[in-house]
Amino acid sequence: MSNSIIIGQYVPGDSWIHRLDPRIKIVIIFCFVVFVFFANTALSYGWLTLFAIATAASTKIKARFIAKGLTPVWFLIIFTFVLHLIVTREGTVLFEVFTFPIYSGALIQGFSISLRFFLLILVTSLLTLTTTPIEITDAIESLLHPLKKIKFPVHELALMMSISLRFIPTLMQETEKISKAQASRGVDFKTGPLKDRIQAVVPLLVPLFVSAFKRAEDLAMAMEARGYRGGEGRSKLRELVIRKQDIIALGLFAFVIVVLFLLRS
Amino acid sequence: MGKISALQLSYGAIFVCLMAIGANIVIWFPFLAIPIGGVSVPLSLQTFFAILAGLMLGKKLGLLSMTAYLLTGLAGVPVFAQMQAGLFVLFDYTGGFLLSFLVVAYVTGWLSERLIPFTLSKGFFIATVGVLVNYLIGVHYMFIAMNTWLGLTISYSTTWISMTPFFIKDIFVALIAAVLMCKIVNRIPKQIRLNTH
């Protein structure tokens, strides 16, 4: 489990979506999230669905992986749909389910809201499916760069994220060790009143803190020994460059949005 | 904001990891799924660590650390509860709780910088304020999310009532944060706090 954590949901691949500049991907997805709410006709919804599915297909990621990323939200999508069927009472009665009337307005509204939700989730998950967390971190640092003017520590934020990527698996293993160590001492927390169980958290957390803080101090020492002096004048291992394909992607997306506005009423 | 030292940076990063572990603590300690009113509520220590981040790191570094946590999760690393990740968590009706950790860390940090020296009763006060901020933002976000983009009409009071079991649990857990903080307050290196005297 620990090894898969730092790559997150990333599925390696070599599609043109994978190779796009992560900044461009983030910008496009943020715009998409906003523009989804502008769709209000069947045609405009259809156009956005076409865009989302075409993009998903061009990542060449197996549908199985994409569906796996959607698992936690299927419930929400279906729940929204069903709730609309029950609550909304507009339009004509289409048919009855166990003497419960289903209205045409409910069907349309439930479907469009579920579809909008599905589109949002599909497109945003494409970002994390085709981009490694490290790339996204670099992109965030670059996109937030203007905030440096108001003294927001952008570089430090990005570095903090990179460091935590490195340490999340380590500390998770540590937690696993602590839980096994406690179990081997025969500690039983499974029974007993609520108060005892909550209090039992403290002896579990103390070793976790000790190891976490020790790691933080070792790391700080190592950084200082190597002459870390903040972001000023620091060079980068990975440089982000905007290439021709990124401009083309932006152009295509602009076209999608223009058509969307033509299709809405 | 003053210059951030390597030590402050690593402490901030460690709190991102602790938040990730706290969100999924039931994976390692299954007994922490607590039955409240017939439903098994998995205990999450996110609020606990967010409050602790404020208490230990102070308002600025605490806020920075929570921002890093949120962005790490949005970048696709499964650091949120139930090993979730990705941008969609913000559309979900529980997204407000994640956003509120930024404010929780800032507010608890701000209070702890003013209420020195640290005592248990002050710790209880700060922790309770932390949980209140967490729920004020989280529940309002939930209410707005349900009634706008999720398109579910739900009354204001129902939103609060549905969150009550979690609220009780989090108050308990926050008080433990205060107790724990009391035990370790003198062992934290003084240099990790930014701009405090």
Question: What is the compact description of this entry?
Answer:
Chain A has 265 residues and is mostly helical. Chain A has helices at 2-6, 16-19, 22-36, 42-58, 63-87, 104-130, 133-143, 154-184, 194-199, 201-225, 244-263, and strands at 93-97, 100-103. Chain A has a domain at 1-131 and 238-265.
Percent of sequence in beta strands of chain A: under 5%
Classify the secondary structure makeup of chain B into a structural class: mainly alpha
Molecular shape of chain B: globular
Q: How many DSSP H or I helices of chain B?
A: 6
Task: Please tell me the overall pLDDT of chain A.
Answer: 84
Structural class of chain A: mainly alpha
Strand content of chain B: under 5%
Number of strands of chain B: 2
Distance N to C terminus of chain A? 49 Å
Q: Which H/E pattern describes the elements of chain B?
A: HHEEHHHH
What best-fitting shape of chain A do the alpha-carbon axes yield? flat
For the record, the CATH class of chain B is Mainly Alpha
State the helical fraction of chain A.
over 70%
Radius of gyration of CA atoms of chain A, rounded to a whole number: 25 Å
Distance between the termini of chain B: 15 Å
Regions with little confidence, pLDDT below 50 for 5+ residues of chain A: none
- Low-pLDDT parts of chain B are none
Q: What's the number of extended β-strand segments of chain A?
A: 2
GO cellular component, one term (chain B): plasma membrane
InterPro entries (chain B): BioY
Family (chain B): Belongs to the BioY family.
Membrane topology (chain B): Multi-pass membrane protein
